Amino acid sequence: MRSFVTSRSLPLILSVCAGLCFLAPAHASDAHGKNGSVILRMCKSADTVKMLSVMCRSYLDGYLEAAHHFNRGKLAFCLDADDKQKAPAELVAWIEAHPESLNRPAGEVLQKSLTERFPCRGRK
Length: 124
Hints:
The chain is built from five helices and no strands. It is an all-alpha fold. The longest helix is centred in the middle third of the chain and has 21 residues, at 50-70. It has helices at 10-29, 36-44, 50-70, 81-97, 106-117. Helix 2 (36-44) crosses helix 3 (50-70), helix 2 (36-44) crosses helix 4 (81-97) and helix 4 packs across helix 5 (106-117).
């Protein structure tokens, strides 16, 4: 009888388990959804850990799509392609400068940080 785990699939299984272990404390501490501390953890290591980079950028992209859709394109923040590359580092800097945001809902933290770091005033 063959084992379900082959030597080629073991690294994938281990990386998925490691990712789940990383996320478990975030869900246990916040039963109502993600908060600023989760955004900080995802985005703080985005430059060095590929999985966190994907998670941070995916979460940010999802938020931007939803904000654009539900606000019918009338946003308080403006991000171009270069800004989207800088956004994870800017989010980290903003959250670290506003420690009260660690326990606030993720959507609120993203709205406030993006509005302050990427305002639309004066942009075309």
